[in-house]
Specification:
NAD(P)-binding protein; Epimerase_deHydtase; NAD(P)-bd_dom_sf
Length: 377
């Protein structure tokens, strides 16, 4: 065990954090793991297979955005320092006030980043988002134009830039698309819940904008494998071979995105097949109207769906609904492409995707996971 790295996961009960912990646990990749989260495992909708990897002695409850928590988070009984720190923490909900992202995302990142630098951590992996790129249907590479289009992305980009200035921080940045997989509660979950309601209402599910709008994806299984691969590459000498001039940044940055070029059209096809419903796209007229009146359009959609969803849960006898909802976030309904090029990770780190594109089978797997948890009506 001595030569295996010790690992600290901040935000380790979040969607990506818990799967990273499970991946490390199942493959016995680490000598020691600590999971830090402000939420207790009992309150985190944790499926049973995560118990051993995320709870018990491995778990420390702490708010990493507060400086006074740092000793509890980082100190180890043997006085040694962690080899890898993965920052999976931060605010993941959309449409919050700026102050919330500043405190829970930006400050959290800088807090743990400074501490990791002070303690000589071998690799600090910061999770960021592909929403930092300027919207473009052509896939963005890591050094392409930046123009964040969600609030999460605005503050994630600030975190990236500020972390890069910290002296002595062994930083790698990973930018993610829409991450989906079993137990997912965002993006794909919203679409599936909406589809479930449209099926019950026996009506067509129509998307705004066009079928070509890019909504790139990565499966959670590949995301956590990629995070581990990046840390291993970095600590194994990658940072010394990194050519800042050729790569366009002093800090190694990697897009993690599958090879399926997921678009709204791809999702509409899959959802149509899975649910046996008609799917389509609103015409130019409605999309133009929506662009000018996005708030009221989102409110209308939510008003239309939330009641029937509650009825479906009641009919199914689901009294303790999980994290699923058809509630549509305005920020995710923008006419913006999430379009990323993931070739650098493959070329530089030698990573290969095991789930290279989203499929009917993989989406059905997501729904099966909801059924196991009794979240699905």
């Amino acid at each position: 065990m001595a030569e295996k790295p010790s690992v600290l996961i901040i935000g380790g009960l979040g969607y990506i954090g818990r799967f990273l912990a499970l991946h490390i646990h199942q493959n016995k990749l680490a000598s020691e793991v600590r999971i830090v989260d402000k939420v207790l495992p009992q309150l985190a909708w944790l499926p049973p297979e995560f118990e051993e990897a995320c709870a018990g002695p491995k778990f420390v409850q702490a708010d990493a955005s507060r400086e006074q928590s740092l000793p509890r988070i980082f100190d180890r009984a043997d006085g040694k320092q962690w080899d890898y720190v993965f920052n999976c923490g931060g605010e993941t909900r959309y449409s919050q006030e700026d102050e919330v992202y500043k405190l829970r995302s930006l400050n959290l990142s800088l807090n743990v980043g400074r501490e990791a630098a002070k303690r000589g951590v071998k690799c600090f992996v910061e999770l960021s988002t592909g929403m930092v790129y300027k919207s473009d249907s052509a896939p963005s590479k890591e050094n392409d134009k930046l123009k964040p289009w969600s609030k999460i992305a605005v503050f994630k980009l600030q975190a990236e830039e500020e972390l890069a200035k910290i002296d002595g921080l062994n930083l790698a940045i990973v930018r993610l698309p829409h991450v989906y997989g079993p137990y997912a509660s965002q993006w794909v979950a919203t679409a599936l819940c909406m589809a479930r309601v449209y099926k019950a209402l026996e009506s067509e599910m129509k998307w705004l904008w066009t079928k070509d709008l890019r909504t790139n994806t990565a499966h959670i299984h590949d995301v956590v494998r990629a995070l581990w691969a990046v840390a291993g590459w970095y600590a194994g000498g990658g940072k010394d071979t990194w050519d800042a001039k050729a790569m366009g940044s002093a800090v190694p940055i990697f897009n993690v995105v599958d090879k399926g070029v997921t678009t709204q059209g791809v999702m509409a096809d899959i959802i149509g097949q899975v649910f046996g419903i008609e799917t389509g796209f609103q015409g130019q007229l409605i999309s133009t109207f929506a662009k000018l009146n996005l708030d009221s359009v989102v409110d209308d959609v939510n008003d239309e769906l939330l009641g029937p969803w509650a009825d479906l849960l009641a009919e199914a006898g689901i009294t303790r609904p999980g994290p699923l909802t058809p509630f549509m976030e305005r920020e995710l309904l923008k006419d913006t492409d999430l379009s990323m090029d993931g070739s650098r990770l493959e070329e530089v780190v030698g990573f290969t995707y095991e789930k290279p594109k989203i499929s009917k089978e993989l989406v059905e797997e997501v729904i099966e996971s909801y059924k196991r948890m009794n979240w699905w009506p």
